[in-house]
Amino acid sequence: MILLVAAAGGGSAWYWWQSQQGQLPEGLVSGNGRIESDQVDIAAKSAGRVREVLVQEGDLVSAGQVLAHIDTTELQAERAKYAADLAAEEASMLEAKATVAQRQAELTLKESNLRRALTVIRTGAVSEQERDEAQSERDSAKAILDAAEKSVTASDRSIDAAQALIDQIDAQIADTALSTPVKGRVLYRLANPGEVVSAGGKILTIVNLAEIYMEIYLPLEQAMRLPIGSQARIQFDGADFAIPAKVSFVSPEAQFTPKQVETRSERDKLVFRVKLRIPPSLLDRHIEMIKTGARGVGYVRLDPNPPEWPDFLQKRLEDDPLDAED
Q: Which residue intervals define the domain Multidrug resistance protein MdtA-like barrel-sandwich hybrid in the entry (predicted)?
C-alpha cells in the first residue's frame, strides 16, 4: 500500500529527479520498488453458511471489529440438546445425593443395632446368630452407602462432561463472529450472504495498515554495508515529496532480481532484498490515502556517519513533522 497524493508540479519534479540519479552523495544508494503490505485473511474456522458480511471492499476497519457472521442455527440446536443433557445429569445428581442421605441413615441404624447387640450378648439376651445378623446388616448398609457415593461422583463427572460440550459449542458459536485482528482496509470480499464455505474458507482479505513497506534490491557490496535501522527515504513516481522510512530487514540470501524489474540487465544480477518500513505515526496520519502497489524509488544510507539527504529527498508531505523517523 502506499501514500498517494496528487502533488502539484509532480511531473516536472519527476523529470528533475531523474536528472539527479547519477549525483547521489557518497554513502547513499537507491533501488526501484513498490509499496507492499501484509495481508490478513478472515476465514471461517468451521464449515457453514455465511449469514451476513458487514463490510464492503475499500472499507477501513479497526482491530477487533466484527466483519461477518456464519449462521449458527445448527449450533444453537446442538447447544439446546447439550443443555437438556446437562439438566438431566443435574437431576440425576440430586437423586444420587438423596440416595446417599437415605443410605447414610440406614447405615446409622444398622450400626446402632450392632452396638446394642454387642453390648447385651454377654448377658445372653442376644444370641450369637442375632449378633452376626446385625454385623452383616451393618456391613451391607456400608457397602450400599459406598456404592451410592460413587454414583454421586459419577454424576458429577457426567455434569462436567455435559458442561464441557456446552462450552465447546459456545466456543464454536463465538468463532462464527469473524473479526479482524488488525487495523486495515478491506481488499477483497470473497463470499456473500447465503454462500456455504468450508472449514478455513476465506470471507475477506484485509490489508494490514500497520505494516506498510517498500522492497528494493541492492547488490552485495551495498547490502553488506547496510545496517538494520538505517534511515531511508521513499519517493513515489511522479511525486515531489519523500516519505521517511527505516531499513527493517536485509535478506541473508542473494537472489536474482524479480521479474517485475523492467530491464533484463538488472534482472540478471544477484541482489539482496531490503525492506524499507514506513513509520506507524505517518501511516496513522495519512490512513485514508494509503494504497498498495504504488511504484517509486527507495533511498538508504550505508555509512555510520551518513551525508545529508539531497534537497529533493528532504521535502515532506504537507504537515508531516521533520522528525517523523520512528
A: 39-206
SS3 assignment, position 12: helix
Per residue in 275-322, pLDDT tens?
999 888 888 887 777 778 888 999 998 876 667 888 888 887 766 654
Residue 121 domain flag? yes
* Rounded Cα gap, residues 3 and 241, in angstroms: 11
pTM above 0.70, yes or no: no
Residue with cell 520512528: 326
Assigned domain for 32 exists = yes
| Rounded Cα distance, 38 and 184, in Å | 10
CA distance 22 to 250: 24
CA torsion through residues 288, 286, 214, 185, sign: negative
Q: Return the SS3 of 259.
A: coil
| Helix-helix angle 128-175:73-120, to 10 degrees | 160
Q: With CA atoms as reference, report the closest residue to 188 among 294, 292, 47.
A: 292
Q: Contact 104/80 with Cβ under 8 angstroms?
A: no
**CA–CA distance, 104 with 45 (Å, rounded to integer):** 51
Segments forming the whole domain that contains residue 11: 2-38+210-313
Tally of structural domains, the chain: 2
